[in-house]
User: What shape does this take?
Amino acid sequence: MARRIINADVTSYYPSLMIANGYTSRNIPSPKVFEDIYHERLDAKASGDTATANALKLIVNTTYGATLNQYNDLYDPLQARSVCISGQLYLLELACHLVRDIPSLRLIQLNTDGVMVSLEEEDYETYKAIHDEWMSRTGFGLEDDEIEIIWQKDVNGYAMRTTDGHEKVKGGYLVRGTSKAGAFSANNNATIVADALRAWLLDGVPVRETVMGCDEPQRFQIIAKAGSKFSRVYQLVDGEEVDVQRCNRVFACSDERLGRLYKVKAADGRVAKVESLPEHCLVRNDGMPDMSEIDKQWYVALAERRAHDFEKEERRKMATTTKAPDYKSMNVWQKLATARLMVDEANPTKSGLNDYDGWTYMELGDIVPLQNKIFAEVGLLEQFTYHKGNRETFTDAAGNSTVTDEQPHAVSRVVNVDDPSQVIEFCLPWLDIEPIVTNAGKKKQNAVQMQGSVQTYLRRYIKMQVLDLAMPDEIEPETGSPTKEPAKNAETSKAKVSTSKRSAPKATAKAASQRPATASQRKETAKGITAADSQATKMQIRQLTRAIKTLKDAYGGEPEVSAAIAEIGAKTGNLKGEFTKKDAEGFLRQLGELKQRLDSEGGAE
Assistant: This one.
């Protein structure tokens, strides 16, 4: 079914509110004067007299702004706030009416003077009836525009094109050049980035193509200003401070001798970077550089980052023009596949931090709220249960006994709420494990805490299966850890600006750190290294990490393997808690024996 996107703006909304509700400034001797100018402007617009209409528009609109300016004779904040609040309430009432009575309608935007919606073609007449009734009742006029395409970062940042070819952009990412309406204003900062972004959003032209195809240096300029609070601005050139103006024309370049611009605060001498500049700045206040001096790649990267900001909000390009999925008609497998895709597209937050190697992972708190939201939308429910297990003996007529021994296990049942007979089950063994014991022999957790710990681990592992999450395991400190870049040497490192004085370390502290250990200190150190009940070494932790990874790679689908890894994770605090060398040796032996047995049984393919 085809859909329509409609943007309905209230004609001259704030002036209309001021006239209809008596919200003009109470300092105006005769509100009739304002009303006459307002109607004269509408008549000029209707007759095609654009020059008169635009001139009067400036007068009409600035009258509202003056009511918020305490230095203006029209200052009247009560009336100004009354305009804003009542205006939003009128539009909110219209939006609520539309959403309530049109099932296919989606609200795209509700702003200060209009509403943008998407709806199926068959519901247009209902929309029109509500639209006309609202105008008749309130006395305000609504001007409809049919939208061909819209990309929206937020309510104040979007690019759209109407079906008659008119384009409109709004927001700091897209609005560049000289203002064509209202008071004079100009923003000629990196206009090539705004042009590339607009071409990508509305015409599908890759930003790289627009940037690399431009040979006009003025479109690459960045105007870098430092206000009157700063006493000087300088650039690092070959690591040396070179004074520049407080307002500079800057271009991104590839010359590594040329560094960033910094500003010095007049009050206290503090130094800060001039914002939003490239790492290597070419300053040309006397004219335009040659295009060969400009690093176009920097502008490509900036445009791509800004495009990504739109993509996060508008990932489903023009999703408002397609019919919403019919989840009710899907079976449980189709719903789960859809939910997995939605979780993947949501890119869940990773709030868990591996202290050992510094990488992050998803905790239950990251998974559960997102899963609940998506499952509620598609019509799924997950039930997590614990089965204690059961041991039964059956004796047949001949006196032969058969023993069934069901082990304790955790089960996750994913149910189709539209047809509860459709269920998918996921299962993991639940083993009783001992609490973590400190070197002093003290238990860190009681039985209840230990049970809760195991449940948390198993719930997380089962959810990884349910949602098909691919992420590093938190008890594998090396798997998925970030690549460490080699340290830069003195010749290649960039010059840094220090904003504070650092005192040299005291000689006594340095001397103390360099003193050789005494015989008794060396003896104590050796005793700590060789003691079986001392903390496990980093080498043992790394060995455990490799053993776990090897076992998972070979037999990750075996319940016994998952249970063994969960047990070790619980006992060692995911290799971050306190456990001894002896414990580490035992775990390594356990993993080795388990792998050897599975190898001999032919478990691996």
Residues 301 and 546 are 38 Å apart (CA to CA). The longest strand covers residues 142-154. The longest helix spans residues 77-101. The domain at 3-140 is CATH 3.90.1600 (Palm domain of DNA polymerase).
